[in-house]
Amino acid sequence: MSAQLYDVIILGAGPAGLQAAIHAARRKVSVLVIGQSSKSSAYNAHIENFCCTATQSGAEMLEIALSKAQEAGADSLEKDVMALDIDNGQYIVETAGGEVLKAHALVLAMGISRNKLNIEGEKALVGKGVSYCVDCDGPLFKGEAVAVVGCGSAAVGAALTMIFYASEVHLVCEALDVEAFLAEKLRQSDVLLHEGRKVVRIQGSDAVSGLVLDNGDELAVTGVFIELGAKGAVDFAGKLGILLDDTMKYISANKKQETNLPGVYAAGDICGPPWQVAKSVGEGCTAGIEAAAYAVKRKSEKG
């Protein structure tokens, strides 16, 4: 069965992604927004400094934005994105629910997520076995025992990825919080799941030597991947070859919100500070317009 093809797929349902959807859909191209507004950093915010709205909750603002995107003709899918790839000039998007979709153009507006555990040993051992990006650092642990910490789709995806590199993979989480499709995939894998457990300490002096769990168990690992949020800029950049800025934290985009890859645009927090709705909306507007124009051009070239 062939994957459904959209003109533009937008990853992220925050202010940048939804504004991009509105402007792309108004140009009469097929648009799909993938993401959950409740996971946007704006969702729990109190919006009082945005010129175009009265003081309101972020949740209310995003609900209105999603409604406007749908009215403009955009489809929406409340899923996490697990993987991106490219094939013959088209971008392939795989979700945590198992859906596989294609697009002529992508808008990356997933925000950023580098949440920390804030436990003993974490800060001191960053770069010495502690990592926040499997796609970046996973191959460095070939043949070694590692642990992934987290309960969401990013953590499960990281653990499943590390099976191809590590000799042993542990996943530590308090309560698994993924779709049934992904949970079953995990349980059928060789990943050692420690559900209902928390990490209380990362051991090691010059390098990671193990983890201590809240029940006193110790896991002998040399790598710890902390994946507490959804996949972000660094993860996808590493896979597709998207250039980051000088800080190596955010996606590099020009004034048209173009990345170095043709047909891939970025907007919002994923492009760096300031962390303001106004900035995200402006970049989303530009990205949506440009992505739609690119998709139309691609289709005309194919005849």
SSE diagram, text form:
Blueprint: E1 4-11, H1 15-25, E2 31-34, E3 46-47, E4 56-57, H2 58-72, E5 75-77, E6 81-87, E7 90-95, E8 100-108, E9 130-131, H3 134-137, E10 145-149, H4 153-162, E11 168-173, H5 180-187, E12 192-195, E13 199-203, E14 210-213, E15 218-219, E16 223-226, H6 233-240, E17 264-266, H7 277-302
Parallel strand pairs: 1-2, 1-8, 2-5, 8-17, 9-16, 10-11, 10-16, 11-12
Antiparallel strand pairs: 3-4, 6-7, 7-8, 13-14, 14-15
Keywords:
303 residues, FAD/NAD(P)-binding domain, 2 domains, five-stranded parallel β-sheet, 25% strand
Compact summary:
By secondary structure, the chain is an alpha/beta fold. It contains 7 helices and 17 strands. It folds into 2 domains: about 5-115 and about 230-300, FAD/NAD(P)-binding domain (3-Layer(bba) Sandwich); about 130-225, FAD/NAD(P)-binding domain.
Low-confidence stretches: none
Q: Structural class per helix/strand content?
A: alpha/beta
Specify the CATH class of the largest domain: Alpha Beta
N/C terminus separation: 24 Å
Shape: globular
| Number of DSSP helical runs | 7
| Residue-averaged pLDDT | 91
**Corresponding CATH superfamily of the largest domain:** FAD/NAD(P)-binding domain
Tell me the CATH topology of the largest domain. Answer: FAD/NAD(P)-binding domain
Based on DSSP secondary structure assignment, what is the total number of beta strands?
17
Under the CATH scheme, the architecture of the largest domain is 3-Layer(bba) Sandwich
The helix content, as a percent range, equals 25-40%
Report the biggest beta sheet as strand number plus sense, adding barrel if it closes: 7 strands, mixed
Give the tally of structural domains: 2
